[in-house]
């Protein structure tokens, strides 16, 4: 009789465990499905006129509408952006851009470990594609939940768009100063030229200030911006992404 009671007890425990497992599993699947459904559609990013309009806040507190696509008067194709700027931005922001599929697993793992260890969000490890996803669809709050959405959106962007299109979108919506969005507006604001005419020295400066356009604004912090500009130029020539002649020309343009 004791054996039968033990067997019946084990059966009830197993049944209870299975029910609990199914409840937990179903809840997780349901939450992930709902999460997936709340992600924005991305197909419109293929079109020249995406129909997407970003709302950005100027230093004065006013709201600025930034159309994503040809409706934006400052929008330029990748062919109309200086190759120097493309090279400098990729080197500065995401050196493995042409190798990854939206995120860098090693950097992402290290980022998660660092954030969990500190019990707060400290390290981002964002690729260019992840930054684009954030600029287009996500806020600036620093949470692991937002980072997860950012990673998933980046993966989807990489499977929908070409690398060139991702770069074109990124360079046209990135912030380069107070109320300055996109490479064309940045080139005019900082140097009085078009995006196609940026020199290597100018491109390196724009890439240098990109992570924090206010903190590294060459008008407010010229020494900090110059230091980053020179460091990036040294990297570019050391890694053979620009020629020694171009490097020397950039140094001559910057001056002593």
Task: Please summarize what this structure is.
The protein is mainly α. It is built from ten helices and four strands; from the N terminus they run αββαααααββαααα. About 10% of the residues have low confidence.
Structure, described:
With about 260 residues, the chain is mainly alpha-helical. The chain contains ten helices and four strands. The strands form two sheets. Strands 1-2 form a two-stranded antiparallel sheet. Helix 2 packs parallel to helix 8, helix 2 (about 85-95) packs across helix 9 and helix 9 (about 220-240) packs antiparallel against helix 10 (about 245-255). The radius of gyration is 24 Å and the shape is globular. The relative contact order is 0.12.
Topology:
Layout: H1 2-37, E1 49-57, E2 63-69, H2 83-93, H3 105-118, H4 128-137, H5 144-160, H6 163-173, E3 175-177, E4 180-181, H7 183-191, H8 200-209, H9 222-238, H10 244-254
Antiparallel strand pairs: 1-2, 3-4
CATH topology: Penicillin binding protein transpeptidase fold
Largest sheet: 2 strands, antiparallel
Order of helices and strands: HEEHHHHHEEHHHH
Number of helices: 10
End-to-end distance, in Å?
95 Å
CATH superfamily: Biosynthetic peptidoglycan transglycosylase-like
The CATH architecture designation is Orthogonal Bundle
Question: In what order do the strands lie side by side in the largest sheet?
Answer: 1-2
Number of domains: 1
Helix content: 55-70%
